[in-house]
Amino acid sequence: MERPAWAPRSIDISVPSVSRIYDFYLGGSHNFEVDREAARRAMEFMPGLPKIMQANRAFMRRAVRFAADEGITQFLDIGSGIPTFGNVHEVAQAASPGAHVVYVDHDPVAVAHSQAVLEGNTDTDVVAADLRKPQEILAASQVRRLIDLNRPVALLLVAILHFVEDADDPYGAVAELRDALAPGSLLILTHASYEGIPLPPERAEGTVGVYKDIRNPLIMRSREEIAQFFEGYDMVEPGLVAMPRWRPDTAPEDEDPYAFSGFAGVGRTA
Predict the structure, then answer these.
(1) Secondary structure of residue 227 in the 3-state scheme
(2) Is 95 exposed, middle or buried (0-12, 13-18, 19+ CB in 10 A)?
(3) For residues 113 and 6, is the Cβ–Cβ distance under 8 A?
(4) Terminal Cα distance for the chain, rounded
(5) Can you list the alpha helix ranges (DSSP code H) found in 102-246?
């Protein structure tokens, strides 16, 4: 397999990556055949996966615009993935010129490509770090340079927590990050769930099995379990809902049924 110029020498391009599979679902070009093969296997069980990812990105953009309208000018996007059109810094800086954005990911491809995309943008940076180690994220020089934790921050955990197993204490990690944020900060979150998927659960489990096979378990949590991540936050209306139902730009009824898979919400610290 030939290694493209954008792929760091340190990565094993024979092993599928969640970030690159996500990039494939969104129509991106920073993925390998091993990623496309895993994505196609997952889509055999759940053909609407690209629709789910598109709904996820659309929610993220609406939530970032909401945060900017609320006067927030700092954005910390953990599990940011490979940059695609309409990324956080593009939306935030269009709405609020000079807004500061820090991306965080533990995938070397995502980090390397983010660095290339962000070159010359002094208001944006990227950190190679893991959500499961919040203190390392908060102590990173890029975060200290661009994020003032004494002022409100929009913390994005979009399509990342469902890749953190309970054994790794995702609730504890989210709480640590919450405790570091100033009052008035926002948590912007999406999470996969069996609830809302227009398929029998046993068929959707086939997709979960594909992610388990590539050693990136997909943890499908209930609405109640997802709501627990917002402990210490006041929910912004309309609360924790299917992605197309969170402050939509267009009628939710026009959306693909798969877009209603999982949940999205925004919370504000008191």
Answers:
(1) helix
(2) middle
(3) yes
(4) 52
(5) 108-118, 134-139, 141-146, 170-180, 201-213, 223-227
> From CA 23, how far away is CA 10, in angstroms rounded?
20
Helix (H, G, I), strand (E, B) or coil at 85: coil
Helix (H) or strand (E) holding 268: strand 263-269
Residue (of 206, 227, 252) closest to 47 by Cα position: 206
pLDDT, residue 2, reads 66
CA dihedral defined by 142, 161, 159, 73, rounded to 10 degrees? -40
**Structure tokens belonging to residue 38:** 């895993």
At residue 185, what is the residue type? Answer: S
Residue keyed to tokens 């609406």:
62
Question: Which has the closest alpha carbon to 164: 231, 203, 126, 219?
Answer: 219
Task: Return the minimum-mean-pLDDT range out of 22-36, 130-144, 184-198.
Answer: 22-36
Please say if the pLDDT value at position 40 is more than 90: yes
For the beta sheet containing 124-128, the strands, ordered from the edge strand earlier in sequence to the opposite edge, are 124-128, 100-105, 74-78, 154-158, 186-191, 263-269, 233-235
Cα angle 174-164-11, degrees, rounded to a multiple of 5: 115
Q: Which of 160, 135, 144 is nearest to 229 (CA)?
A: 160
Burial (Cβ within 10 Å: 0-12, 13-18, ≥19) of residue 171 = middle
Q: Is the pLDDT of residue 1 over 60?
A: no
Closest CA to 230 of 182, 193, 269: 269
Report the C-alpha gap between 59 and 33 in whole angstroms. Answer: 28
